[in-house]
Amino acid sequence: MIALAQVAPLTAPPIDYAAIAPLLVVLGGACVSVLFEAFLPRHQRWPAQVALSVLVVAVAGIALGVYAGSAPVAGIVTLASALSVDGPTLFLWGTLLVLGFGSLLLIADRSVEPGGAFIASAVERASVAAAPGTTTGPTGVDPEHVDRSYGAPGEAPTMQTEVFPFVLFALGGMMAFVAANDLLTMFVALEVLSLPLYLVCGLARRRRLLSQEAAVKYFLLGAFASAFFLYGLALLYGYAGSVKLVAIATAAVGTPRSDALLFGGLALLVVGLLFKGSVGPFHTWTPDVYQGAPTPITAFMAACTKVAAFGALLRVLHVAFGSTHWEWRGVMWAVAIASMVIGAVLGLTQTDLKRMIAYSSVAHAGFLLLGVMAITPEGVSSTLFYLLAYGFTTLAVFGVISLVRNADGEATHLSQWAGLAKRSPILAGVMTFLLLGLAGIPLTSGFTAKFAVFSAALGDGMAPLVVIALVASAVAAFFYLRVIVLMYFSETPEDGPTVTVPGAFTTVAITLGVVVTLLLGVVPTLVLGWAGAGGLTG
Amino acid sequence: MSTAPDTGGNVMLLVLLLLPVVGALLMYPLRRNVPAAKAAAMATALLEFVLVVVTWVGYSTDAASSGERFQYVFSVPWIPAFGTHLAVGIDGIALVMIALTAFLVPGLMLFAWAEKLPEGRTASGYFALLLATEATLMGVFTATDVFLFYVFFEAMLIPMYFLIGRFGGPNRQYASVKFFLYSLLGGLIMLASLIGLYVTSADQLGAGTFTWSDLQSIAQSTPTSTQIWLFLGFFVAFAIKAPLVPFHTWLPDAGAEAPIVAAVLLVGVLDKVGTFGFLRYCLPLFPQASQVLAPLVLVLAVIGIIYGALLAVGQKDMSRFVAYTSIAHFGFIALGTFAFSSQAFAGATLYMVNHGLSTGMLFVMVGLLVARGGSRLISDYGGVSKLAPLLAGCLLLAGMSSLALPGTNSFVSEFLVLVGSFPREPVATIIATVGIIFAALYILWFYQQTMQGPVRGNAVIRALEAGGVGGPGAMIDPAVAAERGAGFPDLTKREIGVLAPLVVVIVVLGFFPGPVLDVINPSVQATITEVGLPDPVPAGGVVGGVR
């Protein structure tokens, strides 16, 4: 007892619960979701999980809104300065929650793919042989290749609901990732967001081999990237004696220590982050994973993972390395150019729509880097705006892709989209609008976002890079245009795919994406104001 | 720092902008009822024309002479973070361009009234795209905010792209994609300059702006090296649009594959956005750069005049023929624009209008021939004047206007360009004059091939056979065929309705260009003041003489 009394009482660090409430709600909701999965009977899981997920995102959103209304402009640092809740964090949290909500809607939809797009194992398919009445395909088809719903024969179609806790955990990890104020927190958040994503990539109901290959590839490369990140973290700790971003910035200013540790650490750290953001040349997983993963998950990854990765990159480069940007900017120029060129040029050669959008995301990552590299308030706000705009557009694009199907599932080969406008003018119109948005045509969010990012970059002395980016935009526009040409000007093939009438969830998600793409193109003032509301706080 | 008023203003131009949009949207509920859709579209286009006439009447040349740069000004802030405004206003140059647009569209609709569309396409979609094109053109000519101009400049591509790609000829996919990519590339290069202009204005004014008059006020104090880069970005976009050699290769494809009404709008008006852009943006915003780089532009212009004419002579396809003649004409406009004299500016501006009229009419005539013969090849026609004398007469008039015969509208403008350019650029002007001879050559050759001589050519013979006159290879009696009205009929009443206004305007402007020049001149004077060069020939000299 005496010994204990002599030890100075360990004081818990003060926690600003109001500020981190959104994060706590999402992570808590994820835990409850796991319990649902464990204890609810199978037929109750889907409605319960959907309701819970929507509720969690909504409550987190309300908590965020309430806090943001009274938040100090300068931002605060809480949890022993592990998390920084400032203007960009709040904006990114809002972005992640709204995009996560849209993705959850796509994930929850069971009408497009009967029973939902997720299944645990291929064994279930074989059991169709035992229930001949349920086959819908022509007789004589190998039962291995006949689709049937998940669950016992004769049971109503149901889906693999583990996907909900996974997505909630990933979302929570992303929110922690963008707010992380020290590298260790950032690393933990990186793993929290990555591990569920590796799993959900392999859950596709169709094309299981492709899906599982994607998951394994993503896991292996992701683990590799995490190792890079950790190595970089160690080097930086060796340099600065701290993992805090601010401490690194302080140490970098006028110390006699060798720069090798600092920039070696930065390089390794950034490789890990660029990997997550699918920036070329660290993008190699992107096309395979985008193609193999179930489309709602691809949408979630394309929209939210990008936000998280670039949010963290923004914080690392601006807070910890803002003062040394003359040293590293040359290398980042090369990365940005590589990413834009790889995305635009390889995108031209793709014949699969999902792979094409994957390369488009690589090109967009290059554009985003321009904003990230501009160490100015405009650089931060334009990157934030771009992330929001891109997220919504790409979410809706994947929503639309999931609707065009043939007997083997989604018809993602470009040739299958020929003449779609004739059979489904509304879908073709929506897709056209979204593709024009990705191409950055005025009056879409893509243009406003590109304008903001490029003007920030030009304002910080990156004129040649802006010109290269614009040329890359023109090249990339060609492959978006190719899809439009196919849909409108080509004849329909004989065995063309059908367009599924979307269920309420998918309709809401796509509508959300289209409306935001339009509004941010025409009246972006409000959102631009939010994006520029406050600077990064270390 | 913006001098643009933020509280609105005259809504007339907004109405001009929105009316075609409303008309285009109206086509969707009317898509099942094609006659009603056509009537609604025509009513919209006519109303638009009436409103433009009202605008013209209300435009005060006195106010323009006394230094009021824009009239019918309307401005509200749009995206404060970027310093953009929803700002519109017109000077004399913009006014004649919107008048040309609004004048052409109803006639084109009448032309398209009974056009046979590709399978599965509806007239309501066709007319909706025409109206949408008109709306974007109104926007591009009236915008006084550079950002807003850029938005319309890009938006303009989309309806035209669908017009070509959905309603065009056999090779329409290739042509539409080529058109779109060329224009988009130009637009994106311009975007780089646009952003550069914004950053420059932020440096000089403290806050970035896109308001044209603010940017113009800092033009003289921007370093020449900066100006040159910014100028080049705008120039490439406009040179692709206008097409100047060597950026012209998309035009023959697009012009040939587009449906006739789209070709008229494309070559007649949409391409003028490029030359309009030279006058409104390149010269006043980058005056020093314009002077430094003028020799380059003049060389391209002169090459275009000669090269376009030579290629026109060699064309087998009528639409491509007209497209190449246009490339030669655009060379004249560019020559006038970069010769820096008020006469040449006025001539270039008038040339834009006149070229829209004469080339528009030429395209319409080509369309009428194709509607009868079903072929675009020049060699498929011959001796048409014997079958359809009225048609041949109209073609002759259109051709004469195109080669700038005195008495037609184009003569005045071509003369002004050459006279105005000579004092400053004698060599270029002399070479350009040779182009006039070529113009006479290709137009007369074309007319002779298709209209004169004995009735011949596969298309004509086939049409006559289909109409029940003449046997295979037999010479037929044209008088009989004409009497029967079969096979290769002369102009119908509707077609006369399309052509009559064009004929009237072409002739009237040939003798009385005064009203148009009165509108143009004050704005031209303003432009030359903005460039900051002395006027080699004071206005009122030859301009007054022509009036």
UniProtKB/TrEMBL annotation, chain A:
It is found in: Cell membrane; Endomembrane system; Membrane. One of its GO terms (biological process) is ATP synthesis coupled electron transport. It comes from the Bacteria. This is NADH-quinone oxidoreductase subunit N. Residues 131-140 have a biased composition (Low complexity). The chain crosses the membrane at residues 17-38, 50-70, 90-108, 163-180, 186-204, 216-240, 260-279, 299-318, 330-349, 356-377, 383-404, 425-445, 465-489, 501-531. It is a multi-pass membrane protein. NDH-1 shuttles electrons from NADH, via FMN and iron-sulfur (Fe-S) centers, to quinones in the respiratory chain. The immediate electron acceptor for the enzyme in this species is believed to be a menaquinone. Couples the redox reaction to proton translocation (for every two electrons transferred, four hydrogen ions are translocated across the cytoplasmic membrane), and thus conserves the redox energy in a proton gradient. It is an enzyme of class 7 (translocase). The keyword Iron-sulfur does not apply. Residues 131-154 are annotated as: Disordered. It comes from Pseudonocardia halophobica. Its main location: membrane. GO terms for cellular component: endomembrane system; plasma membrane. One of its GO terms (molecular function) is NADH dehydrogenase (quinone) (non-electrogenic) activity. Keywords: Cell membrane, Membrane, NAD, Quinone, Translocase, Transmembrane, Transmembrane helix, Transport. InterPro entries: NADH-Q_OxRdtase_suN/2, ND/Mrp_TM. Residues 180-474 form the NADH:quinone oxidoreductase/Mrp antiporter transmembrane domain. Signal peptide: none annotated. Belongs to the complex I subunit 2 family. NDH-1 is composed of 14 different subunits. Subunits NuoA, H, J, K, L, M, N constitute the membrane sector of the complex. PANTHER family: NADH DEHYDROGENASE (PTHR22773). Its EC number is 7.1.1.-. It catalyses: a quinone + NADH + 5 H(+)(in) = a quinol + NAD(+) + 4 H(+)(out). The gene is nuoN_2.
From TrEMBL, chain B:
GO terms for biological process: ATP synthesis coupled electron transport; electron transport coupled proton transport. It is a multi-pass membrane protein. It comes from the Bacteria. Its main location: membrane. GO terms for molecular function: NADH dehydrogenase (ubiquinone) activity; NADH dehydrogenase activity; ubiquinone binding. Keywords: Membrane, Transmembrane, Transmembrane helix. The chain crosses the membrane at residues 12-30, 39-59, 79-111, 147-167, 179-199, 228-247, 259-281, 293-314, 321-340, 352-375, 387-407, 427-447, 496-514. It is found in: Endomembrane system; Membrane. Residues 143-436 form the NADH:quinone oxidoreductase/Mrp antiporter transmembrane domain. One of its GO terms (cellular component) is endomembrane system. Belongs to the complex I subunit 4 family. This is NADH-quinone oxidoreductase subunit M. It comes from Pseudonocardia halophobica. The lineage of its organism: Bacteria, Bacillati, Actinomycetota, Actinomycetes, Pseudonocardiales.
